[in-house]
Design brief:
mainly beta; OB fold (Dihydrolipoamide Acetyltransferase, E2P); 7 strands; extended
Length: about 150
């Protein structure tokens, strides 16, 4: 089984690129605080490289920014290539399959994208901000007839 679930903050804005075939690919790095402090009493962090493809790549590039908190679910992948000096370089990264946009550095709530549900935009959200506050209209009357209720 190869499953990874991470929650952290972006260290910089995501980078969106396209393959020669036109497939979107976005890369970004999550800073994830370790649960304990080191011997000097300082909190350390791990920096994990994330790769998202296709529609998820577009959404990450559009809605994620430096400092924003995100949850990433995916799989661990290793690959290698030869650098300009001819040395083999090994890369370990997480290929994202689900990304939840948890908020900004100031703690504003966001939404997320789960390709397993088949929709890139949660239902009932404003087109201008598809990942905005789902409870923004709380307390306002709802226009619904008794025939629409299941009970």
């Amino acid at each position: 089984m190869n499953r990874v679930i991470l929650i952290g903050n972006l260290t910089k804005d995501p980078e969106l690129r396209y393959t020669p075939n036109g497939v979107a690919v976005t890369t970004f790095t999550l800073a994830i605080n370790r649960p304990r402090t080191n011997q000097a009493g300082e909190r350390e962090a791990d920096f994990i490289n994330i790769v998202a493809w296709q529609k998820l790549a577009d959404l990450c590039a559009t809605y994620l920014r430096k400092g924003r908190q995100a949850a990433v679910e995916g799989r661990l992948q290793t690959r290698s290539y030869d650098n300009k000096e001819g040395r083999k370089v090994y890369v370990t990264e997480v290929v994202a399959e689900n990304v939840q946009f948890l908020g900004t550095r100031t703690g504003n709530e966001g939404g997320g994208y789960d390709p397993g549900f088949g929709s890139s935009r949660p239902a009932g959200r404003d087109d201008a901000d598809p990942f905005g506050d789902p409870f923004a209209g709380a307390g306002k009357p709802i226009n619904i007839s008794d025939d629409d209720l299941p009970f």
